[in-house]
Specification:
about 150 residues; alpha+beta; about 40% helix; about 15% strand; elongated
Length: about 150
């Protein structure tokens, strides 16, 4: 047995007029599309075009999505926070006890300090990048310098 399909075409202008009669909408229908089982209409106010705006009006009115970037999150579970500081770059940072304990030793070269910080981060199942290692190292050293300065006074 065959199947009967009924086709109904409705001009978008009729749907636009119907929507305008029910709602007070901006003057220009900018875009329309089907999303799932819904017709979505995009309205905007009519713009007065200037020479500089003409290049922008040629672009489609679709919203642009931000590029998804992987955030550098380090596992710090189980580490005791010693202090919260604002570093020289204006960032709010937490200083952790394992770093303070390891970097308090005097006479370490910068390479040895980097290796210590990298080892601490790796011991907590992190895969630290050079920037992450530098971040924890610099912030902890900055904290230790301010602590020494306060103790001398």
């Amino acid at each position: 047995m065959g199947q009967v399909i009924t086709l109904v075409k409705i001009p978008i202008t009729e749907i636009e007029e119907w929507a305008r009669s029910k709602h007070s909408l901006p003057s220009v229908l900018a875009d329309f599309r089907l999303e799932d089982k819904e017709l979505v209409l995009y309205f905007r106010e009519e713009e007065i075009l200037h020479d500089t705006d003409s290049s922008q009006s040629a672009k489609s009115p679709q919203r642009r999505r931000r590029a998804h970037r992987k955030r550098n999150r380090m596992r710090t579970r189980g580490w005791e926070a010693v202090a919260r500081i604002t570093n020289s770059k204006g960032q709010r940072c937490t200083i952790y006890k394992p770093f303070v304990g390891a970097l308090q030793k005097t006479g370490l070269s910068t390479e040895e300090q980097k290796k210590l910080v990298e080892g601490i981060l790796k011991s907590n199942k992190n895969k630290p990048s050079e920037t992450s290692i530098a971040y924890f190292l610099e912030n902890t050293l900055e904290y230790l310098r301010t602590e020494k300065g306060e103790k001398k006074e």
